[in-house]
Amino acid sequence: MYKAFWSGQYSIAVLVITVVRIVSSAPARSTAELLVRMARARGLWVHVGRVNTMGRLARVEAMGADSFDGGQLSRFPDNYIPPFLARLE
Length: 89
Known about the structure:
alpha/beta; Rossmann fold; 4 helices
């Protein structure tokens, strides 16, 4: 599922969390894209979690998210950070 979190009247960000099983399904992508569009229309920062593959990074970029993270990046930084940085440059 995707979840959005707002912090009361001072809403400054939306967090889209992807679940591995459904991240590649069309309905899940549509939901995430809708959340991102809604947040962007309100001027909110969009952060996507669980981005651990280049395919997911491409989808996050296409959606227009402002930032992302993934557990693989923090657990295995020497293996994952260089290719992700190269992809983003």
